[in-house]
Amino acid sequence: MREDLLHFIWKTQKFTTNKLESSKGEQVQVLLPGNHNHKGGPDFFNSKIVINNQIWVGNVEIHLKSSDWYAHSHELDDKYDNVILHVVWEDDIAVFRKDKTEIPTLVLKSIVPDELLNSYQGLLNNSKRKFINCEKNFSEMDSFLLENWYHNLYFERLEQKTSLVFSLLEQTNNDWEKVLFTMLLKNFGLNLNSDSFYSLAQALDFSIVRKLQNNTLGLESVLFGMSGLLDKPELTDTYYLELKKEFNYQSIKFELRTKHVQSPEMFGLRPHNFPTIRLSQIANLYSLNHNLFDDLINSNSVTRMESILKVSASDYWKSHFTFGKESKVSSKTMTKNLIDLLIINTVIPLKFCYAKKHGKEINDELIGLISTLKPESNFIITGFDKIGEKTFNALESQSKIQLYNCYCTKNECLKCFIGVKLLNRNT
């Protein structure tokens, strides 16, 4: 038995009888089960219960066993003083308030229908499950209702992403341009070099980036040098030496410190994702766009955002992936896939935060933007595509990533619209 199932049973009042009794034989009638509380304190607020013909308004606490009340030290917490009913699966001990009055206890074990328990166990213990618990029934969900759930999941995921943005705003005294630079650099690193590039952004005073926007070589040298990519004394490559000389100059001028910067990785990366290429691209992005934050935040179309972000690495990198080693000439322009990831993970979260800070509602605009982007490609999206309709856009892929990571893998089926629909349908 899981406590989240008891919450579901209480919220939906799925009992085998309307004639409820407490463990002491008191008549119990539920007028209002209350509002489910997902934070600290009792599980349900503002419940309305009739106990022996007396109406009580207060809170309800739910546990697997009555003794959990004391195991969780609720008797010492003022937030639980207004609990009017203790709902449990097993009643193993009497529970008292601070004033020594006993809290009525409702035992669920004997009044929950077997079909509900069997359906829930079947959902969690599907021996044939390969991907998620409800994969056999996922395709049966109503597409309109599923679309609404996806919208909720997307904004839930967006809220999680914006926690970093608000933290950075606090650190930088609301310097939106510095926050954009930090988020962009972090996401330019993709999965492998995300932490490394983030440490670089944190270590580099953004005022230096502003001062070097007209000096691409200077900005490149700072990004390369602080990342430790200019620490190869054996190299005699002309461009490398030029960058190293420039970095030495900028280091003295701006008193640069590199001790907190994590070295980027190259092993396991495709050459076009090498840190050399990515750092050159972001240096050129800032050299070409002196009002990058304003340009992106005021863009109301993906096409416009893509045109701003579509930049190339410096000319040297057309025939190189690393210093001193020539390669076949190829374009080092940012791909549409990378640009779209930057829009998904940087631009849209920033627009969302900026609107919230200024008291504006732009949810419909954000849905329009994310819906025009292609879906990401990963094992989560592949898994969902196999059991349901093909993922159509980035709104759906972001929602499915949130669904999988925060619900499916944690067996949080009773907090999921799909799981609740399936359980209600079968009981």
TrEMBL record:
<protein>
    <submittedName>
        <fullName>DUF2851 family protein</fullName>
    </submittedName>
</protein>
<dbReference type="InterPro" id="IPR021272">
    <property type="entry name" value="DUF2851"/>
</dbReference>
<dbReference type="Pfam" id="PF11013">
    <property type="entry name" value="DUF2851"/>
</dbReference>
